[in-house]
Amino acid sequence: MHASLPPPCVCVSCVFALGQRPRLSTLLAPIVLLTGHSAEVTAARFNPAGTILASASLDKSVLLWDTASCKNFANFSGNHTAGILDLQWTSNGERIVTASIDKSVGIWDAANGDRIRRYKAHQGIVNACATALNNQNAIVSGSDDRTTRVWDPRVRAEVHSLACSYPVTSVAVSHGGDTVYAGGLDNVVKVFDLRKPSEPALVLEGHADTITSLSLSPNGNFVLTNAMDNTVRIWDVRPYCPNDRCSTILTGAQHSFEKTLLRANWSPDGNFVAAGSADRFVYVWNANTRALLYRLPGHSGSVNDVTFHPKEPIIASGASDKKIYLGELDLS
Fold first, then answer.
1. Are the C-beta atoms of residues 235 and 246 closer than 8 Å to each other?
2. Partners of residue 130 on adjacent β-strands
3. CB of 12 within 8 A of CB of 275?
4. The pLDDT of residue 261
5. What residues does 206 pair with on adjacent strands?
């Protein structure tokens, strides 16, 4: 398990490596390749402080990387019996939540790798998990069993089980933990108010194929979706939206016959969004102008996940080629 520089590249997006631009971050190098997983990387997330990158893989493991040195310093494995499809940090940075093909949701102590909880209530593959920005005890998972479940790590059983008509492939939760978003094979996003969880309070319609990713904006007013119809969309989820809920449609990122769950995420300031793509590129847009800013190469397989560093102009991506790239990104 090691970090290295990628092979020399002369494409525009890699000119950092040729020393033609000043450094933008404290990253070890302008572009860094992390290797260590033995199967495709399904998720990659920085902790809230930005000091650690956690990655999940179909090899059933979670690897932790020191952001400054880009070295792998921990391997959490042995608790899932099948591949891990999603990973999130709790808001205090003390725990990691995982969603697995083995139908379970795991909660890990980020300091030592001990498993705190393993929830096994789902009856199908758990495709996605989410944590609340301002509530470390609000955890959500979505499964092929057509349910979205809400968990509190202080208790052993689920807090809510939200019924959906189709398998759930993506989830998000409001910053306070009181609203849950679920997307799936029915091409819509169901919004549940946990004070009245029996029926969705709102349904966001517009996508023409399976929704593979949900991400709440930093200010909590918008939801970012990625879908197999090859569009990335931004939705206004404020209680009294004056116009069409779908405020922005972004194109470029591709899905393929593999039908994998490709994800999209916001930058910390909410001004930019990025998405993984089946064409092996990372796409970055200005969320306000809709302009495509970057189409970043490097991976040799579908890019499953992309995430922004919480404090520095760094972007990380994980792909089916088993690799993780970290790179500086000029968003000025």
1. yes
2. 140
3. no
4. 96
5. none
> The whole model's pTM is what?
0.92
Residue 99: CB partners within 8 Å, gap ≥ 6?
Answer: 84, 85, 86, 87, 105, 126, 127, 128, 129, 141, 142
Token pair of 84, please?
A: 């891990």
Cβ neighbours of 109 (radius 10 Å): 13
**DSSP code at position 7:** P
Beta bridge partners of 161: 149
Tell me: the pLDDT tens digits for 61-116? Answer: 999 999 999 999 999 998 899 999 999 999 999 999 999 999 999 999 999 999 99
Q: Which CATH superfamily hosts domain 2-328? A: YVTN repeat-like/Quinoprotein amine dehydrogenase (2.130.10.10)
Domain boundaries, the chain: 2-328
Q: Which two tokens stand for residue 30?
A: 């302008």
Phi, psi of 66 (to 5 degrees): -75, 120
45 neighbors 87 (Cβ within 8 angstroms): yes
Name every residue whose Cβ is closer than 8 Å to that of residue 189 and which is 6 or more positions away in sequence.
181, 182, 183, 203, 204, 211, 214, 223, 225, 235
Quick one: tokens of 176?
């306070």
